[in-house]
Amino acid sequence: MGYPRKLTRRFRAFDNFAISFTIINILSGIFSSFGFGMNAGGPRVLVFGWIGVSVMVLFVGASMAEIASAYPTSGALYFSAGKLAKRHQGAWSWYTGWLNFVGQVGGTAATDYAAATFIQSFVAMQWSSYQPTRQQTVLITAAILLIQALANTYTVRLVAVVNRISVWWLLVGLVVIVTALVSVPSHHQSPSFVLHSVNNTGFGSAFYAGLLGLLVTSWTFTGFDGSFHMSEETVQATVNAPRGIVRSIGFSALTGLMLMLALVYAVTDYTKEAAADAPPVQILIDALGMTTAKVLLLVVIGAMLFCGLANMTSNTRQIFAFSRDGAMPGSRLWHSVSPRTRTPVKAVWLAAVCALVLVVPGWWSKVAFTAVVSINVVGLFLAYGVPIFLRLRLREFRPGPWHLGRWGRPVAALAVLWIGLSNVLFMLPQASPITAQSFNYAPIALGVVLLIATVWWFATARRRFKGPVSYGSPDEVAAMDLI
Questions:
Q1: pLDDT tens per residue across span 348-368
Q2: What is the C-alpha to C-alpha distance for residues 428 and 359, in angstroms, rounded to an integer?
Q3: Crossing angle of helices 89-126/26-39, nearest 10°?
Q4: Is 6 among the domain residues?
Q5: Please, what's the b/e burial string for 257-275 (b: 16 or more CB within 10 A of its CB; e: otherwise)?
Q6: Taking the CB of residue 473, how many other CB atoms lie within 10 A of it?
Q7: What is the number of other CB atoms lying within 10 angstroms of the CB of residue 205?
Q8: Cα(69)–Cα(255) distance, rounded to whole angstroms?
Q9: pLDDT digits over 319-353, tens only?
Q10: Does 7 map to a domain?
Q11: Taking the model in full, what pTM does it have?
C-alpha cells in the first residue's frame, strides 16, 4: 500500500471480528434506543424493521469488505476513497476522512455517555436517595474515557485480549438476558403482539413514525469499519479484515433479533414502560423483579464499556493513518508510534480528549450534547458511502482475495441507496411539536462539519494534501519497515 510498517500484526481473525462485533454491540445499541422504537412504530417496526435494516446494512458491510480486501490499511475509508476516485482524489479523501473522524469521535463520546447514564441508573436503583445530574454524568464519562485511553496505551495485544473477552461477555450476557425474559415471567404477550403498531411521536402519520423507527437498527449497526481500520495489525488482512466486517454484522443481526423478540414479548405495561426514562430497564424490572434487573443491568453496562473501548481503538487507528498522510494539524505527533508498546499512544490521547470535548457541553445542556454527537451516525454512514459510491463508478475496480464477484456492483448499488435513504431519515424531525428540546440537530451538526472542512480545504489543505501518500516502491518501503 506504499507505507513502511510501524504497527505489529497481532490481531488474529477472531480478534479482527471481535472489534467490530464489540463496537456494533447489540446490548448497548438496543438498550440505548429501544425506547425510541417503542414510541416510533412499536413492536412491528422494532422486529420487522430490525430484520429489514439488518439485511441492508449487510449489503453495506459486504461492499465495504470488498474494498477492505483490496486496500487493507489503517486509513480504511479515506484511503480507499482517494484510490478509487477518478479525479480530485485529495478532495474525496479529505471529506471522507473528516466525516469518519468526527463520526468515530462522536461514537466514542455517545457510547461512554450512555454508559455513564446507565451507571447512574443502577446507582439510583441501588440507593433511592441518589439523584443523577448532568454534571455527574459528564464526570463519570471523563473517568471512563481516562480508563479506556490507558487500556489503549499498553500494547495492541492487551486490546485484542479485552476484545476477545468482550465477545464472550456479549454472547453470554445475551443468553442470560434472553433466557431470563423467556423463562421467568409468568405472562408473555400473545404471538400477534409483534404486529402491534404505536405512534407516540406526535406526528399524525403512522407510516412516517414507522420510518423513524427504522433508526433503532441503524443506530445499533455502526462502527463495523473497525475491522477495516485494524487491517495493518491483522494477520492475512486481505481475507481476515473483510470476513471480520461481514461476520460481525451477521452475528449481530441474528443475536440482536433474539434480544429484540425477548424484550418485545416481555412487555407488561406498554404505556408505562414506553414512557419510562429507560424503557428496556423498566421492562426488566416489571418482568423479572428489581434484584434480577439490577444484575442484568450490570451486564449491559459492561457491554457499553467494552463498546467504548473498541470505539476508541478504531478511532485511534484512523487518526494515526490520517496524520500519516499529513491531513491533521500536528500530524507528526499523531502518527508517531511508541517504540516500547508499538501503539500510536499520542493518537490514543487525542481521541480521548476529542471525545471529552464533545461530552463537556452536556454539563450545561443535554440538548447541546445531543446536537454534537448526532453527527456520529450521519458522519459514519456518509463516510461508508463515499468509497462504495466511488467503487460503483469505477468499472475497472481490482478486487482483493475476498470479493463478491459479479454481485459486487448490484450489492454496492443497494448499499449506496440504503445509505442515502437512512441519512435522510437521520436528519428528519423525530418528534412533534418541534421545540428546542425535540429538534433534530443532526443537519446542523453535519452542516458545521462540512462547512469547516470546506473552508479549511480551500484555504490551505488543497495545496498540501493530495490524498494517500506513497513512501516509495515496495522494495523501498520494505527497507523502511520499523519492525
A1: 899 999 999 888 888 887 766
A2: 23
A3: 80
A4: no
A5: bbbbbbbbbbbeebeebbe
A6: 10
A7: 10
A8: 26
A9: 888 887 777 777 777 767 777 767 788 888 999 99
A10: no
A11: 0.88
